[in-house]
Amino acid sequence: MSSPSVSSQRDLLVETGARLFHERGYSATGVRQVAAAADVPLGSFTNHFRSKERFALVVLDHYVARLDTIMRVTLGDTSRPPARRLEAYFDAIESALNERDWGVGCLIPDLATEASIHTEPLRGALAKVLEQQTAAFAAVLNDIVETDGVDDVAAVVLAAWHGTLLRMKVERSGEPVARFRRVLRRLLSA
Amino acid sequence: MSSPSVSSQRDLLVETGARLFHERGYSATGVRQVAAAADVPLGSFTNHFRSKERFALVVLDHYVARLDTIMRVTLGDTSRPPARRLEAYFDAIESALNERDWGVGCLIPDLATEASIHTEPLRGALAKVLEQQTAAFAAVLNDIVETDGVDDVAAVVLAAWHGTLLRMKVERSGEPVARFRRVLRRLLSA
């Protein structure tokens, strides 16, 4: 029988893993360290996850599911004008960031940094997430501007956002996010 | 007497450190690992560098000095029209990238990812590098467009470039760089 405490131990491990991957990166985070930081026995980790890599895939899935929900209720809200949908997405992320430490950043660029040492499944999962997020941005941009190359622009907006989140970590301030949003607002109103 | 082999051991350690920080990140790279990968005795490392953090500062300085040289001969070449200076900078970086593995990326976003665990000197050094590079971009953009908020735009162009280099690592291809350059070219000709 799956007791509530067992499923909450799994959730705890996933939350803790996300935090450690954010802070220290993938390769510097050990399975023992995750279990210890989550205050969960190592045996529980090995019951739930076959390997560190399988664990990282679950952490990424879990993180992306939350981002997908935010994207759906913002970018996907066709009751608003398209430029407002994009603003709403960054509003939602910005308020989530405001509640946390500036040092936390976003798991996607954080994991991407170590892409050269990831095995194929994790690298492939990251590539797919980046592709899906680009497509979500492109769908909104397509409703805003009628031009060729919207996919290129969407990829660059996403890249600018990820670079902004890295700079936020370095500066330990929300100013890089404010700058990004000022520039985006000007581009959208041009 | 400082023999050539001693100074070449130091250079070897710095080159190797840059590669390992790129691939595995800062916290996953140990001092012993750097010495072993450089095929240099650990004692040589400790002779040259007081700590891993001091070492990382030297690696970053060395890397930034090379970027500065590229910036000076491209962004700083006032014999060319300003938009061409910016193109020349990315041309130079792109050809350097073409000679390497796509997984290598750029040390600045790579180190920025772990900013939350860096001690103050390394975090401060990274913040300063980002500020200087933003100023170098802003100087060129100021010659291209007459508008307010050029510093904001310069910061977002730099962020987009760093996000692009992360995606290059994930996709293991030069396509993200090609996309970034297409978008930049359109913005500059608009």
How is this fold's topology laid out?
Two copies of one chain form a homodimer.
Chain A: H1 4-24, H2 31-38, H3 42-48, H4 52-74, H5 82-98, H6 107-112, H7 120-144, H8 150-171, H9 175-189
Helix pairs in contact in A: 1-2, 1-4, 4-5, 4-7, 5-7, 5-9, 7-8, 8-9
Describe the structure.
2 copies of one chain form a homodimer. Chain A is mainly alpha-helical. Chain A folds into 2 domains: 1-49, Homeodomain-like (Arc Repressor Mutant, subunit A, Orthogonal Bundle), CATH 1.10.10.60; 60-189, Tetracycline Repressor, domain 2 (Orthogonal Bundle). Chain A is 76% helix and 0% strand. Chain A has 9 helices and no strands. Chain A has helices at residues 4-24, 31-38, 42-48, 52-74, 82-98, 107-112, 120-144, 150-171, 175-189. The longest helix of chain A has 25 residues, at 120-144.
CATH architecture of the largest domain in chain A: Orthogonal Bundle
- Assigned CATH class of the largest domain in chain A: Mainly Alpha
Number of strands of chain A: 0
Secondary-structure element order of chain A, N to C:
HHHHHHHHH
Largest sheet of chain A: none
Radius of gyration of CA atoms of chain A, rounded to a whole number = 18 Å
Portion of residues in beta strands of chain A equals: under 5%
